[in-house]
Amino acid sequence: MSSAQVCLTDLEALSVERDAGKRRELLRKVTDLFFITEEKQSEADRDIFGGVLERISFELEVEARAELSQRLSSTRFAPHNIVRRLAEDDIDVARPVLERSTVLTDEDLVDIAYSKGQEHLMAMTRREALSAAVTDVIVQRGNDDVLTSVSGNLGASFSAKGFDMLAVKATDLPKLRENLIERDDVPNEVVEMIKASVAAKLKKEFSDQHSDISAMEVDHVVELQSGNMDFSSVIEEKGVGMPQIDIQDLNKKGLLTQAKIREFAEKGLRPELVHSLAIKAGIDAGMAFHTLYEAEVPALAVLCRAYHFKRETFGLLLQERVRASGLATEHVVSAMKRYDSLDDETAQRIFRFLKVRLSVASSK
User: Fold this and answer.
1) Which domain covers residue 265, as residue numbers?
2) Residue 326 and residue 250 share a domain
3) Averaged over 74-97, what is the pLDDT?
């Protein structure tokens, strides 16, 4: 019999003690002994430790088991039987081992994911690594908060089925969409599925609210809303940088005129131009960048009409778009015709709707 087993036998003899305080102290002593000897223990030693710890701890209150769970969560030598039982306990007990213990197998995690509630699922989403077998169940059963958490865990793997399920649920969850689009392992077809589902939802919503607006105008606002779903990070990602001129101060002084915007466009001062458009339209700088350089060209016509930009100003913005992306001549001509045919009131309704949508999304 090993020295650890002898000590355990002596300690176990004390386990008949009914005083709760003494039993808590006994639990700590057994746990201390486990950690002192953990690297020298045989499989039989660990089984004995597990049996004693389980017997003592599950006759005590939640706080004592939570303390044990916290201590055992950090070691790969923890007895499997008690770690598994702790993982199925009250969430205050289960959380440490669900978040950190490497003793739990995928089979354990799948069983617990199927049988326990949202708090247990949330704890699992914080693990350093998660297999696709586990995330399949988490995605199937998780609520919005759980889905957002697991999608943001870069150590989590997902099956094709898991990504498809997340894509469907991402339609109504801006943060989930953002997490998925930022992941390097998301298939392109899943990203396109997300964009298509968001666009379809927006199109129906806008059509229901504004039946007097043409289908073409609905398409413009939907394209602008769904084409780039993380406007806040666009400026940094594109390397546009901050303007050399204080655009906010210029605006406060009444000097941010269309003439000044045309000057920025003519000189190719992109940071100044982007931030000027953002301030004039009351939108995020990332959205302004997307509208000017990436969205379908008619979206820029909608913005310019909505904020009473002159035809000359719109034309210079188009020239900047041509310089940046090599926009074909036929698209320039078409965009000018679109600007001429679009009335201010329709354009204003579209942008009011769009800004409300963005405001709601950013507050979630």
Assistant:
1) 198-363
2) yes
3) 91
Global pTM value: 0.57
Place of tokens 């790969």: 76
Burial of 208 (0-12, 13-18, 19+ CB in 10 A): exposed
- Cβ proximity of 299 and 224 under 8 Å: yes
The number of folded domains in the chain is 3
Show the tokens assigned to 194.
């997300």
Instruction: Count other Cβ atoms within 10 Å, centred on residue 54.
Output: 17
Going by the DSSP 8-state scheme, the letter that residue 184 receives in this structure is T
Please say which residue of 186, 212, 237 terminates a domain. 186
- CA 53 – CA 151 distance, rounded (Å): 36
Q: Does residue 220 fall inside a structural domain?
A: yes
Measured distance CA(210)–CA(195) in Å, rounded: 22
Proportion of the chain above pLDDT 70, given as a percent: 73
pLDDT at 16 over 90: no
**Cα separation of 314 and 207, whole Å?**
27
Among 186, 220, 243, the domain-final residue is 186
The DSSP call for residue 292 is I
Q: Of the ranges 33-37, 232-236, 275-279, 327-331, which is most confident?
A: 275-279
Burial letters 246-256, b for 16+ CB under 10 A, else e: ebeebbeeeeb
Distance from C-alpha of 130 to C-alpha of 126, rounded to nearest angstrom: 9
DSSP-assigned beta bridge partners for residue 228? none
CB atoms within 10 A of CB 318: 23
3-class secondary-structure state, position 133:
helix
Q: What are 86's two structure tokens?
A: 């702790």
Instruction: Give backbone dihedrals phi and psi of 210, rounded to 5 degrees, phi first.
Output: -135, 70
d(CA 158, CA 131): 7
Query: How much is the CA Rg of the chain, to the nearest whole Å?
Result: 30
pLDDT of residue 102: 94
| Nearest CA among 289, 283, 288, 296 for reference residue 199 | 296
